[in-house]
Design brief:
Elements (H helix, E strand, L loop, with lengths): L1 E2 L6 E2 L2 H13 L14 H11 L6 H14 L4 H22 L16 H14 L4 H18 L15 H11 L16 E2 L6 E2 L2 H62 L8 H14 L5 H17 L7 E2 L2 H11 L4 E6 L5 E2 L10 H14 L16 H14 L3 H6 L13 H10 L2 E8 L10 H12 L8 E3 L5 E5 L2 E11 L4 E6 L5 H4 L16 E3 L8 E9 L2 H9 L4 E5 L5 E4 L7
Parallel strand pairs: 6-9, 8-15
Antiparallel strand pairs: 1-2, 3-4, 5-7, 6-11, 8-14, 10-11, 10-14, 11-12, 12-13, 15-16
InterPro entries: Papain-like_cys_pep_sf, UFSP1/2_DUB_cat, Zinc_finger/UBP_domain, Znf_C2H2_type
Subunit structure: Interacts with RPA1 and RPA2.
Family: Belongs to the peptidase C78 family. ZUFSP subfamily.
Length: 591
């Protein structure tokens, strides 16, 4: 047998029950207080709870139960209708006065089970009955409802089942008394609104449990937010690390490229030295058909012989220029008041083997050619010839091994042979000192005239050569060696200075970049004024930021050479302006 949960009617089979339930679904639900209809069952319950709060009291529901019980005891249809009305009324009372469950005990639609509400409501109604008659009538109705509707009553709080409704009442009163402690006599009992979702609770403890659920959910969400935030932070850190890594990698690449560029610029890229560069040039000339194979082998043999003996082959040398200048100034140059020329000196220009990096070596050859023709330096330079460039590199390395200029040696990795490394004023100073030639470096570290010019440099050269002026001679051939002139990226040799009638000064300079065919034009009997243009340099022609010169001043004794060796940790040079001794711990401008 199956029992209908709505009206309690007993049917014999499941299909009959389904047909019976269709009748209920099609029938109209009517409010027991105001006869409202046309809405479903859940909406009717909500209507009774809100619109008929005062009428929906236990006493009124008990009176309606008694009235229904005794007014129509014999009418079956009336009984079913009355039972439905009673159940609806009881459900409304229970929904209003019964304490609400925590969220985890509620069904998905947020309503309490119908049987739970009825059981709780009946229990409370029996507790507050005013007379034995009412109590007797209520008990009869309760037993009728439970016996008709449920075979085994179930506790709405813990789910326990009992055989009889009286046992279930006792169970609820004894085990769940704390949930039934709210008095129902006062229809104006306190209600508690949830501050988070607005749910109305009739019991503070239930509200607290309900709010705890919100807090737990909020804590969980905050935890998820923290996890998300932590993940975002880690992602940001990873992106920043990746960006830093790329930036450092790019900086390292740029530094590496700049370093390699500087190595190539200053001949420290291990691409070979003088011999390799000369051979590559000869091979290119053969490939272009400009040089015959036989001539290639002849030039190669001459070069290898020159390197083997360490003496320059003289193919880039031009001699006799100082004598030619003396004739020119003596017989022509009417606009020149006076001119001072250095001692005899040969001009050396760069060859294909040292093109682009050999200016310092060629200037040393010029300076040494003048010293070798001067008897004053015959003792310290005895037996020497003009060395080739690889030999000069070897001589500088030997000076480093003696202990001169250790910082310069370190900057050039203690190696010059087989490289295209540039040399400057410091290497020239080191090499001359190792040969016992007394010299000093004068550093014109900043301009001393308008537009970045260096008039103090011209004045110093004039004083250097004019100290040997003889009478009122227009042309003075001094015994002073030429002066090594260095500026950033290039070096030249000063062989004289001229003073014009308007008191302006012009330096006479040998440039290793000037080829022999141009220098040989100065050897003609009738030198044209235009031919001197490549030698003359006025104040306005020298505008580099800084200049250094190496001036030879005599011969060093063995003791003086040893003293200079003890000063190997720095260079002593004069600074102009502010001519004072300056201990210069670094290498030359050319590097």
């Amino acid at each position: 047998m199956l029992s209908c949960d709505i009206c309690g009617e007993m049917v014999t089979s499941e299909p009959d029950m389904k047909a019976h339930l269709v009748v209920h679904m099609e029938s109209e639900v009517v409010c027991p207080f105001c006869k409202l209809s046309g809405i479903n069952y859940d909406e009717m319950c909500f209507h009774i709870e809100t619109a008929h709060f005062e009428q929906n009291t236990p006493e009124r529901n008990l009176e309606r139960l008694n009235a229904i019980q005794y007014e129509n005891p014999d009418s079956k249809n009336t009984t079913r209708q009355s039972t439905t009305e009673v159940n609806s009324s009881i459900h409304s009372a229970c929904a209003l006065n019964f304490p609400k469950h925590p969220a985890q005990h509620l069904p998905k639609d947020g309503t309490l089970k119908h049987e739970a509400l009825c059981a709780g409501s009946i229990t409370e109604s029996r507790k507050y009955s005013k007379s034995p008659e009412k109590q007797f009538g209520l008990s009869a109705v309760q037993e009728s409802i439970y016996e008709t509707t449920y075979s085994s009553p179930e506790c709405p709080f813990c789910g326990k089942t009992e055989g009889r409704s009286q046992d279930m009442e006792m169970h609820v009163k004894t085990k769940h008394a704390n949930l039934l402690e709210t008095p129902l006599e006062d229809c104006h009992q306190p209600l508690y609104d949830c501050p988070m979702c607005g749910l109305v609770c009739t019991n503070y403890h239930i509200l607290q449990e309900h709010v705890d659920l919100h807090l737990d959910e909020s804590s969980f969400q905050q935890g998820m937010d923290r996890v998300q935030c932590s993940g975002d932070r880690e992602l940001a850190e990873q992106l920043q690390q990746e960006e830093d890594r790329k930036r450092k990698s790019e900086e390292s690449r740029q530094e590496r490229e700049e370093f390699q560029k500087l190595q190539r610029q200053y001949g420290l890229d291990n691409s070979g030295g003088y011999k390799q560069q000369q051979l590559r040039h000869l091979e290119r000339e053969v490939n272009r058909g400009r040089v015959l194979p036989s001539e290639f082998h002849s030039r190669k043999a001459d070069m290898m012989e020159s390197i083997a003996i360490g003496i320059d082959d003289g193919k880039t040398k031009t001699s006799g220029i100082i004598e030619a200048l003396h004739r020119y100034y003596q017989n022509t140059a009417t606009d020149v008041r006076c001119v001072w020329l250095s001692a005899m000196v040969d001009h050396f220009h760069s060859s294909y083997g040292d093109k682009g990096w050999g200016c310092g070596y060629r200037n040393f050859q010029m300076l040494l050619s003048s010293l070798l023709q001067n008897d004053v330096y015959g003792d310290c330079l005895k037996g020497m010839s003009i060395p080739c460039i690889p030999k000069i590199q070897s001589m500088i390395e030997d000076a480093w091994k003696e202990g001169f200029d250790p910082q310069g040696a370190c900057q050039l990795n203690n190696r010059l042979q087989g490289t295209k490394a540039w040399i400057g004023a410091c290497e020239i100073y080191t090499l001359l000192t190792s040969l016992r030639v007394k010299c000093r470096i004068i550093d014109f570290h900043k301009s001393t005239g308008p537009s970045g010019t260096h008039p103090r440099l011209f004045e110093w050269i004039l004083n250097y050569y004019s100290s040997e002026r003889e009478g009122n001679s227009k042309v003075v051939c001094t015994s002073k060696p030429p002066v090594y002139l260095q500026h950033q990226g290039h070096s030249r040799t000063i062989v004289g200075i001229e003073e014009r009638k308007n008191r302006t000064l012009c330096l006479l300079i040998f440039d290793p970049g000037c080829p022999s065919r141009e220098m040989q034009k100065l050897l003609k009997q009738d030198i044209e004024a235009g031919s001197l243009r490549q030698l003359r340099k006025s104040v306005g022609n020298l505008k580099h930021k800084q200049y250094q010169i190496v001036a030879v001043e005599g011969v060093l004794s063995p003791d003086e050479k040893l003293f200079n060796y003890t000063l190997k940790d720095f260079f002593t040079m004069s600074l102009i302006p502010n001519c004072s001794l300056f201990k210069h711990p670094t290498a030359s401008l050319c590097r």
